């Protein structure tokens, strides 16, 4: 008994200095409005950080005594502190390299598109392919594809591909090189639009870009160039308040570069990855690929900084291009050049093939997500999740639906009941509502991005951008500025659009903040580490220049980040006055 007491006393004496040391903060932010985003959405005055983690959150009088001789103490002067923002959907490797060879202008009209094609025709040799990528017709003032004749006139001596996601518009040279003529037949999924009178292809391919026999001119970028461009992009993510991102289609090259940046201590955002998964070919080959991804060291041994969380594939086309798979026909459309009144879009994976793919993913402990835009695609994936769940519970893998734009009340109910999440892009509402209403009408858009209902029904939705091209939070395609996204989610107001798109689905300010913090942390399996400002969690946090809970909608859209911290280390500090982004 006596020896046991001596041992306990020794433990206490040894622990005493450690406890004192533990209560001395490395960093204290005080005299502010610290929005914790905890379960009760509590608001504090100060926060203390030790060894990269949150030591304590509370009132100034409780936190300031934790300072020591080497503590950095920052007077917030009343400013707001938030958890670092999380973007649930990015494509950093491709986005960062988009303008490596030459700057790409903003294109808002068909004339802008054709002018850019002419400049490329002048810069390239005859016969070289010209690619215009991800300039969406929903965002052009004319709300249509450039015609085959217009593309021919702009580049008579070059094949042209105006490519948007799974769809494209080709000029005559490109069609000829691809062997797509009046007699061409699509094998498998996809659809080729034809002239109603002659039956000739009009140049528009839906879900058929696999038939394009050309590629963009190869870049001369070295691996070092790619790393430097990624580092530049991540610095801009930090300036936008982002401390964590999801790469929703990571390939081996991207994974290798993230690892290289981390090894050199140059990685300034946490990266959760959905490994790219091609689903064509033999089914057993697809299933073995899933098993191999589950064995990847960054899935088995990944951590909060860099980890593979699951797989991502493509279930349907896009609403931006006219190929999203809808439950009801799109309708004949001048905007999207749709001539078949029965056309419902393109479903890339039949339900009976999707089922074993999802089943295997769940069994391997990976998160499954698929690009699913139309309500037909969303319902297909929800039904498959429900069927898989009957044999193998899916909740632990946090199954996801990517984009999830067109929905139904039934799908939302099932998602809430089974624990299915969604990564959603409010910027699509901001940029595309005008064209979508012109195509579908206001009533059919009732369940377009129904965020308020999802929050109410417990279907966890996280905010993302689907950032694909360009560096710059507002000039990018698509914009990755979280403040624009939150302003859109809380107002349902859009560019070139009068009024609000179903304001009953608007989020509150509190919900919008959760949308870009705690909810995304859950989607990416990081909710125990980040997403809220609570004791013991990693000190990922930002200081902003205005009160996001009380400022006007216009002020919310224009908010700026003053400081960004990753695990308590400052990775961004704004210098000088606020400047509008070019």
Question: Brief overview, please?
Answer:
This protein has 582 residues and is α/β, with parallel strands linked by helices. It contains 19 helices and 23 strands.
Explain the overall architecture.
The chain has 19 helices and 23 strands. It is of the alpha/beta class. The chain folds into two domains: 87-91 and 221-314 and 349-572, Alpha-Beta Barrel (TIM Barrel), CATH 3.20.20.140; 102-211, Diaminopimelate Epimerase, Chain A, domain 1. Strands 8-14-15-16-17-18-19-20 form an eight-stranded parallel sheet. The longest helix is centred in the first third of the chain and has 21 residues, at 2-22. It is globular and about 80 Å long.
Number of strands: 23
Largest sheet: 8 strands, parallel
What portion of the residues fall into strands of 2 or more residues?
15-25%
Mean pLDDT: 93
Straight-line N-to-C gap? 74 Å
Q: The CATH topology of the largest domain, please?
A: TIM Barrel
Total of helices: 19
The top level CATH class name of the largest domain: Alpha Beta
Q: Give the total of domains.
A: 2
Can you list the strand order of the major beta sheet? 8-14-15-16-17-18-19-20
Label the CATH architecture of the largest domain.
Alpha-Beta Barrel
Query: Helix content range of the residues, please?
Result: 25-40%
Structural class: alpha/beta
């Amino acid at each position: 008994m006596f020896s046991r007491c001596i041992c306990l006393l020794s433990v206490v004496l040894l622990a005493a200095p450690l406890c004192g040391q533990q209560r001395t903060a490395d960093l204290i932010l005080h005299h502010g409005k610290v929005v914790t985003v905890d379960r009760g959405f509590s608001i504090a005055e100060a926060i203390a950080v030790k060894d990269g983690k949150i030591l304590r959150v509370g009132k100034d009088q409780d936190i300031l005594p934790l300072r020591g001789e080497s503590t950095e103490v920052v007077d917030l002067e009343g400013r707001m502190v938030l958890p670092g923002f999380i973007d649930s959907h990015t494509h950093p490797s491709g986005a960062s390299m988009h303008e490596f060879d030459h700057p790409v202008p903003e294109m808002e009209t068909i004339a802008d598109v054709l002018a850019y094609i002419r400049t490329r025709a002048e810069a390239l040799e005859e016969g070289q392919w010209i690619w215009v990528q991800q300039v969406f017709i929903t965002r052009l003032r004319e709300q249509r594809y450039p015609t085959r004749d217009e593309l021919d006139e702009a580049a008579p001596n070059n094949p042209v591909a105006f490519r948007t996601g799974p769809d494209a518009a080709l000029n005559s040279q490109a069609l000829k090189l691809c062997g797509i003529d009046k007699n061409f037949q699509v094998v498998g999924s996809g659809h080729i639009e034809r002239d109603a009178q002659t039956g000739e292809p009009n140049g528009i391919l839906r879900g058929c870009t696999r038939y394009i026999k050309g590629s963009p001119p190869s870049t001369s970028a070295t691996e070092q160039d790619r790393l430097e461009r990624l580092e530049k992009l991540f610095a801009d993510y930090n300036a936008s308040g982002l401390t964590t991102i999801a790469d929703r289609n990571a390939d081996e090259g991207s994974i290798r570069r993230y690892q290289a940046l981390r090894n050199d201590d140059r990685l300034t955002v946490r990266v959760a990855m959905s490994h790219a998964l091609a689903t064509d070919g033999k089914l057993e080959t697809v299933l073995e690929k899933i098993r191999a991804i589950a064995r990847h060291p960054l899935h088995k041994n990944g951590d909060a900084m860099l980890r593979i969380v699951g797989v991502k594939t493509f279930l349907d086309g896009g609403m931006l291009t006219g190929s999203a798979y809808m439950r009801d026909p799109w309708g004949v459309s001048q905007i999207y050049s749709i001539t078949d009144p029965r056309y419902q879009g393109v479903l890339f994976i039949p339900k009976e093939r999707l089922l074993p793919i999802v089943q295997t993913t769940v069994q391997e402990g990976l998160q499954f997500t698929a690009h699913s835009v139309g309500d037909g695609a969303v319902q297909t994936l929800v039904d498959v999740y429900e069927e898989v769940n009957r044999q193998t519970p899916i909740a632990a893998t946090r199954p996801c639906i990517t984009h999830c734009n067109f929905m139904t009340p039934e799908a939302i109910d099932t998602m809430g009941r089974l624990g299915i999440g969604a990564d959603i892009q409010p910027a699509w509402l901001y940029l595309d509502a005008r064209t979508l209403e012109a195509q579908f009408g206001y009533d059919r858009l009732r369940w377009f991005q129904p965020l308020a209902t999802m929050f109410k029904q417990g279907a966890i939705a996280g905010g993302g951008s689907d950032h694909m091209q360009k560096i710059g939070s507002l000039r990018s395609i698509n914009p990755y500025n979280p403040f624009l996204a939150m302003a859109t989610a809380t107002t349902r107001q859009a560019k070139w659009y009068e009024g609000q798109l179903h304001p009953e689905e608007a989020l509150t300010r509190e919900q919008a903040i959760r949308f870009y913090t705690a909810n995304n942390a859950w989607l990416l399996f990081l909710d125990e580490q980040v997403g809220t400002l609570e004791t013991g969690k990693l000190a990922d946090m930002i200081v902003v220049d205005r009160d996001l809970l009380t400022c006007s909608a216009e002020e919310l859209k224009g908010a700026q980040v003053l400081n960004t911290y990753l695990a308590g280390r400052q990775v961004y500090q704004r210098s000088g006055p606020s400047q509008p982004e070019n």
